[in-house]
Amino acid sequence: MSGHDSKYFSTTKKGEIPELKEELNSQYKDKRKDAVKKVIAAMTVGKDVSSLFTDVVNCMQTENLELKKLVYLYLINYAKSQPDLAILAVNTFVKDSQDPNPLIRALAVRTMGCIRVDKITEYLCDPLQRCLKDDDPYVRKTAAICVAKLYDINAELVEDRGFLENLKDLISDNNPMVVANAVAALAEIQENSASPIFEITSHTLSKLLTALNECTEWGQVFILDALARYKAPDAREAENIVERVTPRLQHANCAVVLSAVKMILLQMEIITSTDVIRNLCKKMAPPLVTLLSAEPEIQYVALRNINLIVQKRPTILSHEIKVFFCKYNDPIYVKMEKLEIMIKLASDRNIDQVLLEFKEYATEVDVDFVRKAVRAIGRCAIKLDRAAERCISVLLELIKIKVNYVVQEAIIVIKDIFRRYPNTYESIIATLCESLDTLDEPEAKASMIWIIGEYAERIDNADELLESFLETFPEEPAMVQLQLLTATVKLFLKKPTDVPQQMIQAVLNNATVETDNPDLRDRAYIYWRLLSTDPEAAKDIVLAEKPVISDDSNLLEPSLLDELLANIATLSSVYHKPPEVFVTRAKVVTAKTDEEEYLDGNSETAYSETPSHVVSGGSPTASASAVASTSQPASRAPPTGPAAPLPDLLGDLIGMDNSAVVPADDPATPSAPPLPVLVPSSTGQGLQISAQLVRHEGQIFYSLLFENGSQVALDGFMIQFNKNSFGLAAGAPLQVPAIQPGTSARTLVPMNLFQNIMPGPPSSLLQVAVKNNQQPVWYFSDKIPLHVFFSEDGKMERSIFLEDLTNSVIHSIDATVEHLAASNVFFVAKRRNANKEVLYLSTKIPRGIPFLIEITAGLGVPGVKCAIKTPNPEYAPIFFEAMETLLV
Amino acid sequence: MISQFFVLSQRGDNIVFRDYRGEVAKGSAEIFFRKVKFWKEDEAEEAPPVFNVDGVNYIHVKVAGLFFVATSRVNVSPSLVLELLQRIARVTKDYLGVLNEDSLRKNFVLVYELLDEVIDFGYPQTTSTEALKSYVFNEPIVVDAGRLPPLGPAAMFMQGTKRMPGTAVTKSVVATEPGGKKREEIFVDIIEKISVTFSSSGYILTSEIDGTIQMKSYLTGNPEIRLALNEDLSIGRNGSSLYDYRSSAGGGTVILDDCNFHESVHLDSFDVDRTLTLAEVILKIRADFSPNVTANTITVQMPVPSYTMRASFELEAGATGQTTDFKEGSRRLEWNLKKIVGGAEHTLRAKLTFSQEMHGNIAKEAGPVNMNFTIPMYNASKLQVRYLQIAKKSKTYNPYRWVRYVTQANSYVARL
């Protein structure tokens, strides 16, 4: 081949398609090949060349493999949009599948499987049947994957034609590549099928373990991952498996190593001999360490997995903490993960070394990393009580550097240390107080105020310190206001003298009269009443002893950890979430919306596109996903009702209304609507839990119904919410009386927002754990309906203001738009109205006050009419002033 | 398994795009690029290599300034996908000679042909350059590598040294030479990266050498190649590593897993002494290796307190090939040396002007000092190739054999 392929990308004139048509029908082979290349080039940049379908297919009958491949590439792309024409290709496909050249046979089957057109699929079966028994392993391995393709298009066909049996036969194939692909295909089919298709018996197990040694690296991963589902019946077989898998730990491919690690960890659950376990732990350490010298991307995956492994089996890497020390050129995502693992591996033995590292990190350039390092020191202090004092002295050293964000972060962790070791380290308070005026972050301020309040009796000038914060009380964020309120009350209770008395009055006044934050107001009222009715009781309550907090560095629930460990070497172990949380494929495949997407979006199934194509191809997708998202609320309706989406959606909304009428203090009102059942009695050992998030008078509640169908009375109910996108957490303990057998109880748990926010894209998932004294902990997932967050003050009175800006003139729309955009006034739309141009723009000023602007003007004619909409009409005059300046 | 594979340029342009399963919407490349460009989550500002947006998992690596991305809807093995992406980059480079936007665009037909063989229905099939030769028929169009940085650690052989035929690094495995006849040659690169952390008292806190042996063969046919390493090498799997070599003699890398080299590793080949007197910083480097070895392109960086306004430098008398710079944005001193001969010692004095009073000890706010360097024809571990044997086809068959060593700084840090 001569010349540059990129010449095919050269800009095209109007007559391109007819020109190509002519070339495709040329009598010269080379010309035809060049033409097909041009067509493919056009396709990859998103031009629609589907009109050339017949001409391109005509080039298909060729001996030239290179040309054939190009035509097939085209077919995969456009067959869907031209199903009637695609049938033209069938004959050639069938003929190719019997070609003497194995490459052509394989190519035909591979390509046919990629064309999702029913008519083609019908003709695929016979060639596929032949190819599965082909003499050439390259054809067989391609055919094996093709069965998985066919299953994705038409599962019944695969089952009816006995392809599953064929696939299972291929497990015994003498070529390891074929075995690996057969295993991959079977594993995928099993994943999408409810019936048992691919069950691993001890016979298949031994066959696969043998194939493992000869496979390509990728085949080894397929096989190891498939075998992970096998449960060894006894410790002896488990040991046997481990012995066969252990050599994989030496592989250069990290995927093989991690899949082998998963296999071994699973078998270790079954193995009973402590000697064998200890030995395995020893063997696994070096490969895991070696993963950390791979590319940073792979290191990241390895670190996320190691994070799980050390939680379960800390001994494996307990002596290797040094390899987790950060290198200065590690990407930040690697550094953060290393830090997490260092905290987990920190022990009394290595803490001095670890602290030295943390201290070093705390003086680095990257602010986020520095903060995390400071927090890490605090977490070590909480975790290791014998090292707490050393950790604190490091923190104090860092505070003395007086780097603003280090000081703030240190104060936050020191507050936690005080909670963990009450009455132990108060001597350092004086040092902390020196940095008081540098605090400007809410969390750090709140922490410092908590410390002052908690130890008011030991700080001579506690009242002065608090007073300095009180000056700005109205402007502080809620977090700081709440702490200030509590700290002032504590101060007053501890030192009931004049100054605190005046302070408390000022604070209570501020917090009750001048605030619109209900949390703050309610808390202030409670204090107020407590103080006025019984100061002694107030003392008992406010100054009560607090429960000691514990280390949170092993956050994962044991059951979740076990689930994640079973998923080592998968995405699940990187996200630290169970697979069902983020895998939605099974549903999408059956959903009708997906079908539509294929029909509409098929014109460009495989290649890149220009922006114009994105628009045309993107819109059906967008509408499809919109359909999917609106139908979502329906899926969380009670599973008992077999209902169409629409009525259910309505029922849901009506349900919301009704529950909103239920008074908060009378949770057991019988008229409340049925709640969705989240733990059915069948899985809850007789206990059925139904629940839903509801909004009532500006407050969000978790409405729960417990029905006790078990034989015993249940009591001691407690509830806990996992981290979620909205930081929803219980605002009060669960109030449920003992539930006798056969009775039920309803309750509303007030919910707080923004407590423990899960990072990542917003998700509606809410994971809940409920326990009682008689049963195991029940975990269930609920969806967060966004509408509970729609706040009552969402309604805005938008006043319209109109002004003639006589000094302004617009000469060119584009120039004006650009000029305004430079001043952050953004263009929304424009239209023409009776030879006047109308421009719509938007802008925002601090505190998020939006302005919608309509500008009407004749081009070049002095005098511009400006209308604005804004929820804060008082800004209108100065806004017009600004617009006039901008439009001169 | 993998739904789509695509390559994006630094500006987010689609260079290569292949959909294997039709289950992820078309805009995925754009969604990915936006997400990566404006990443601000989990306290970090750099997107991790694996993340999920609306049920689609995006897995990516950055190679030669390009994003190699795969999407998936299922719970795949991320390490498998990441390894595969690296391997695709390597195979493409082997075929094209140079891996960059230009070469990918010019060779799009070849790249699609490769991708069809490498991945089928989202499952990786064959990633060995050698094995792929039997299935791939397009010939590469070789792109001039001139201004563009080549891929991989072997790139260092391009730097300055006349010792090596640097062009070979950017040569395609399959392309025929312009002269018509193919030059028979084989390269064995022993590349070592040193990571050392010195404490402020000069004591070594951590130290490790990360070594790889890379072999790139331009030999016709597929002769058996034998690579013998030091006899005294204590590796557990000496025998099998030879086998690995044979099987991947197409240009793949063999990582000798968990090989423990001598503990007597020569780690103190460099030493950085620091003395700090008030606002004067003196950086001293001593090259602690034999005078017949030279280190190239040395960069010494030292972060200084954020309130540093200016820095003036004073190089030793007669210093050549040395430059200094104060990077205000990242508040760093930079000292570049073109080369240091073994045994030599160089000093830099920097006077810093602060905008405010010092808080006490400057050492607490500055540093750590890190150093980047390359030492060609030297390897710290003392690993050696004793001989490289190629099965002979005929008496006249005598291909060029190159064995190259290099040591590079990975994370070479001295704390203050």
Automatic annotation (TrEMBL), chain A:
Subcellular location: Cytoplasmic vesicle, Clathrin-coated vesicle membrane; Golgi apparatus, trans-Golgi network
Ranges of biased composition (kind: Polar residues): 602-613
One function term, GO molecular function aspect: clathrin binding
Name the record gives this protein: Beta-adaptin-like protein
Family recorded in the similarity comment: Belongs to the adaptor complexes large subunit family.
Topology term for the membrane: Peripheral membrane protein
SMART domains the UniProt entry points to: Alpha_adaptinC2 (SM00809), B2-adapt-app_C (SM01020)
Main location group: membrane
Gene Ontology annotations for the cellular component aspect, listed alphabetically: clathrin adaptor complex; clathrin-coated vesicle membrane; Golgi apparatus
Domain (Clathrin adaptor alpha/beta/gamma-adaptin appendage Ig-like subdomain) ranges: 667-781
Region (Disordered): 599-649
Record domain Beta-adaptin appendage C-terminal subdomain: where: 790-888
Low complexity composition-biased segments: 615-638
GO BP of this protein: intracellular protein transport; vesicle-mediated transport
Subunit structure: Adaptor protein complexes are heterotetramers composed of two large adaptins (beta-type subunit and alpha-type or delta-type or epsilon-type or gamma-type subunit), a medium adaptin (mu-type subunit) and a small adaptin (sigma-type subunit).
Function of the protein: Subunit of clathrin-associated adaptor protein complex that plays a role in protein sorting in the late-Golgi/trans-Golgi network (TGN) and/or endosomes. The AP complexes mediate both the recruitment of clathrin to membranes and the recognition of sorting signals within the cytosolic tails of transmembrane cargo molecules.
Annotated keywords: Cytoplasmic vesicle, Golgi apparatus, Membrane, Protein transport, Transport
Keyword Membrane in annotation: yes
UniProtKB/TrEMBL annotation, chain B:
Protein's cellular compartments: Endomembrane system
Cellular component terms (Gene Ontology): clathrin adaptor complex; endomembrane system
Region forming the signal peptide: none
Gene3D superfamilies: 3.30.450.60, Mu homology domain, subdomain B
Main localization, broad class: membrane
GO biological process, one term: intracellular protein transport
Tree of life domain: Eukaryota
UniProt entry tagged with the keyword Protein transport: yes
Pfam family, one: Adap_comp_sub
Residues annotated as domain MHD: 183-415
Keywords, ordered alphabetically: Membrane, Protein transport, Transport
Family as reported in the entry's similarity comment: Belongs to the adaptor complexes medium subunit family.
Protein name, as recorded: AP-4 complex subunit mu
